[in-house]
Amino acid sequence: MKRLLLILMSSFLILACGGTERATIDESDKSDGDSDGDSDGDSDSDSDGDGDSDSDSDTDGDSDSDSDTDGDSDTDGDSDADGDSDGDSDDIDRDGVWIIAGKWDGPARSNATEGGNISSLDEKVYDLSSTQVCASGSAAASYESVGYIEMDATPDGDSWDDAGSYKGVKATLDATTSLPMRLVLVSGSKDYCYTLSNGANTIAWSDFNTECWETGNGEAFSASASIDKIKIQAAGDQNGAANFEFCVENMGPDDGSGGDGDSDSDGDSDSDVDVTDCDSGPCDVQLNPINGQGGNTTRYWDCCKPSCGWRDKPGEDIQSCDMSGNPLGDWNAQSTCLGGPATQCTYMYPRQVGPNASYGYAAFNGSSCGECYQLDFQGSLSGKHMIVKVINIGDIGANHFDLLIPGGGEGAFPDGCSQQFAGIDIGPDRGGIPTACNNDPGCIRQKCEQAYANWPDMKKGCLWYANWFQSADNPNMTYAKVPCPSGI
Hints:
The structure is a single chain. The chain is mainly β. It folds into two domains: 98-254, Jelly Rolls (Sandwich), CATH 2.60.120; 293-482, RlpA-like domain (Barwin-like endoglucanases, Beta Barrel). It has five helices and 19 strands. Helix 4 (441-451) packs antiparallel against helix 5 (456-466). The longest helix is centred in the first third of the chain and has 16 residues, at 2-17.
């Protein structure tokens, strides 16, 4: 009897406590119809009236008061607090295609004109400090046919007005094409262009010029001007259609802190420590005008062994080179213009050495080999000076210097360059590339890039003519004999 009584009491306790079979109903919760122990009418155990278990009034499961699940106080779905949807800590919503190029930061696109075509860009952010932006396509047989990548200078489409705080632009190009590659600054209704080379480019603001296709000297970009857009452009050639493929990285305004691929810190692409982009040596040479006699100039590059390359000539012996541009040890080697291996050395191209000064080489009949002369130019080149070393004689008259300029014409010996630069279009025998282009600097730059794409020294000298020499067609000058400087 006692055993039965214990069993009945145990069963009563189980029923009273609910055990695992039945939940207890809180007397205070009977009014909302749920079983969560609060009085808010939902099925969770908090008192906020929504269906989640946090303490706010939304339904997203986090503890803030917005409708996303990221735990911050905005509504964009990411984990930052800036109010946009891109996951970084600024207030710029970089949707679609976007390029960050140093201080330039804006939406971007690719486009083509006049029968050209170009690949589209992926919808993502291209930060050119750590990645490349690339495109490929083709241009039709027209100077107006181009393919380009374009970016806005600012996120909201406003102009960028801070050029005065920088020295210019830097950009690294990797291109496979016979077409010229240009960097273009769009400022209002004007395009300012610069022809890029493969590798690191460091460009002063004043090197950008409206002289892209038109004739004339053009207008240089001023650091006081604003910039609306930036383009990387493959420019067409009226002589034939061509394909292009290019990538750009490390692009943006240049503060002069380096990053140009050389070992100095001056922000240009040469190996000296000044801030002007010269090919070698100091770039601060200042030449004072001389009291010289009047003369005239022409231009040539015939690829022949220079007359002063023969040791029977009076004065300094002048080096000859082989077809690849390497110095020859054989002073008796026959000229390539007569079937031999000896040719003009490609390192003898003209080069800028100061704001208004250049060094170069020339043919001149009234001198010994290796003597130097200063030329003070007149006309459109007034204020510019050049020191040339005499390395040749020529079919020229008195007071006449025939300047050695790549692409300048082969003159009386048209067979030499056809041997060394087979298949390259360097224009007519008389006048060369400038004559083929009617002295249009834009056309000259294009042909320099195409003809000497695999000959860096020749390309530099050819572009020197279009840039520093301003495509001047046989300018007059005054001249006088001077000591030869160490850089020539």
